[in-house]
Design a protein that fits this description.
- The chain has 574 residues and is α/β, with parallel strands linked by helices.
- α3 (112-118) crosses α4 and α12 (290-299) runs antiparallel to α13.
- The longest helix has 17 residues, at 516-532.
- The radius of gyration is 24 Å and the shape is elongated.
- The chain starts with 12 loop residues before the first helix and ends with a strand.
- Mean pLDDT is 94; it is low at 1-7.
Length: 574
């Protein structure tokens, strides 16, 4: 596979040295700024001199072009330490333009969503897109395609497949290791993957893991975790040697509960960074990206300098990005200019010495590879396929947790007619339909309080991304299934046998070919329709729905193979 690397804007060493010595003018000087020194935590009144894509000096400089910042602040460009671009529903070329405006100049992305659908074709699509993006876009190679044996993915990436990418210039390490059981069982292929990336960063995914299991996980070589939901869990993982990635996305919001261990001084911060994991573009536009993490952390009482370090220098160190994360000589000129440290509203963003305004002048070139389209292939689904036989009372029921992606299990009485489950205002039906190989696999379950009427469906169902539908009646559920099969994937809402809202995601059933503006308009209409069918205000309709099939998260899950108690690893019956 051809490895594409962005052209570097490097100047002759002698010219840069003479400019750094003040013998020649620098290309660009940001004058009279308060500059964050990441090595000492100080803000210092200095000029920042830039030649090409590199900072050549901090001090007093003259430039061919100068900006008088009049006391504004300069901090390093922000880094999202763990993100799935596919979850934004935008292509990489368009998504990166959105976050650059907010000060994010580096993304460390895990493409395991599209890889679970399209395999190596999906990896190639994402890697090739990196060369067309106005930020530093790095990848962690997916470790778990598929995520496990509990569902059916569209592809399998073994150690031999990943070996092709181990030395790719855009690859920093191994993506989140979700197969925690495989770690404990010493599964050969998994440990071969770990060995491939042993000298690089290996991301973890270990919700609620503690004790000897956590020690074993760290022993295997895992270096980060982004699944902590409490301060106690975060503290134990930091003590075990894992770097903590504080997640604040559209569905999982963990920042408020984790930041307190830093504010009260119990933990040092050098091994802590920020990430979004999964965040939609409308939430980014409304709330922010990594700028939101910084702003919220400061509001909660974190020292501002520390918040900016966690957004830049610390993640650069965790992932071995020696040229990023600092406003200092020799570092890449990725910078954010702020009038206030507290509201985190960028007045200017530079990537490789060029302003975001100049980088975004030209419309993005978005090329769509045929290999990542036409990915929805389901066997015909009949009404009888959705009937759920009830043989006991009470039965296991999924309870979604507001603003989280984990669920809990309860045993409850449900409405039954002639031996079959009937949805009502309290309990609704969940179906997950295998959509890659037309196998006919359908798993069924019951969820409490997700909607009042109609049906909602998606081809976004982490991580295998089979088709998931939740409904109050089989007629609307069948129509939703048929609509997604015909459209090539996306989200749809059906009410009273009519489609009332939809979002087409033509690329792997995960990403749209539309612009960010167009997608935001579609999201607004879809979100309103979700409220109209009764999805609670405190539940993100996209995230709650799409994470229900993920078998590596705690609680009850529904996959194409049935109802799974993820905590025990056992399938349950009704």
């Amino acid at each position: 596979m051809k490895q594409v690397e962005k052209k570097k804007v490097r100047q002759p060493r002698g010219l840069m040295i003479m400019s750094a010595l003040g013998q020649f003018k620098a290309d660009l000087v940001l004058k009279n700024a308060n500059v964050l020194n990441v090595f000492t935590g100080e803000f210092m009144p200095r000029d920042v001199a830039i030649n090409g894509d590199t900072i050549i000096g901090i001090g007093e400089y003259e430039g061919t072009y100068e900006y008088d910042l009049s006391g504004m602040y300069i901090v390093p460009g922000f880094i999202d330490a763990h993100v799935h671009i596919e979850s934004s529903m935008l292509t990489p070329q368009i998504f990166t333009r959105e976050v650059l405006k907010r000060g994010t100049t580096t993304l460390i992305a895990d493409p395991h969503e599209i890889a679970n659908v399209c395999g190596e074709d999906g990896l190639k699509y994402m890697l090739d897109a990196a060369a067309e993006c106005p930020v530093n876009l790095y990848y962690m190679m997916p470790s778990c395609v598929p995520a496990g044996d509990f569902d059916t993915a569209g592809a399998v990436l073994d150690a031999a497949a990943l070996a092709k990418y181990a030395n790719h210039p855009s690859v920093l390490g191994l993506g989140e290791v979700m197969n925690t059981a495989g770690i404990m069982r010493c599964e050969s292929d998994l440990y071969q993957k770990l060995a491939l990336f042993h000298s690089k960063t290996i991301d973890g995914h270990a919700p609620m893991m503690h004790g000897k299991a956590l020690q074993t996980y760290r022993l295997a070589g895992i270096t980060t975790d982004h699944e902590c939901t409490s301060g106690e869990e975060a503290a134990e993982k930091l003590r075990a040697g894992l770097a903590l990635l504080i997640r604040e996305g559209s569905g999982a919001r963990n920042l408020d509960s984790l930041i307190q261990i830093l504010i009260d001084g119990r933990m040092q911060t050098q091994r802590i960074a920020f990430c979004t994991d999964d965040k939609h573009v409308d939430d980014i536009r409304t709330e922010g990206h990594i700028d939101h993490h910084i702003r919220r952390s400061i509001q909660l009482g974190l020292d501002p300098a520390t918040a900016y370090l966690m957004a830049s220098w610390y993640p650069a160190q965790i992932y071995g990005l020696k040229h990023l994360g600092a406003v200092a000589a020799g570092y890449q000129a990725d910078l954010v200019v702020l009038k206030s440290l507290y509201d985190v509203q960028p007045k200017m963003v530079l990537h490789k010495g060029k302003t975001a305004c100049s980088l975004l002048e030209k419309a993005p070139r978005v090329s769509i590879a045929p290999a990542v389209c036409d990915t929805v292939h389901i066997a015909p689904v009949k009404r009888s396929d959705l009937r759920l036989r009830i043989n006991k009372d009470p039965v296991p029921v999924i309870v979604p947790i507001p603003r989280q992606i984990i669920t809990k299990r309860v045993n409850e009485h449900v409405h039954v007619r002639n031996g079959y489950f009937v949805s009502d205002a309290c309990h609704q039906k969940v179906a997950v339909i295998e959509r890659h190989h037309a196998s006919g696999n359908i798993g069924l379950g019951i969820i409490r309080g997700f909607l009042r009427t109609g049906a909602i469906a998606a081809t976004v169902g982490h991580d295998a991304h089979n088709l998931i539908v939740i409904g109050t009646n089989d007629t609307d559920m069948l129509l939703a299934i048929h609509a997604l099969n015909e459209s090539g994937g996306g989200y749809v809402i059906v009410k009273d046998q009519s489609i009332v809202a939809g979002i087409e995601l033509e690329i792997a059933g995960l990403m749209s070919t539309h612009s960010a503006d167009e997608l935001c308009r579609e999201l607004a209409l879809f979100t309103q329709a979700a409220k109209d069918i009764g999805i609670p205000q405190d539940m993100d309709p996209y995230q709650t729905l799409s994470f229900l099939p993920l078998p590596v998260l705690p609680g009850l899950r529904v996959t194409d193979k049935g109802l799974l108690d993820a905590s025990s690893g056992n399938f349950l019956t009704y």
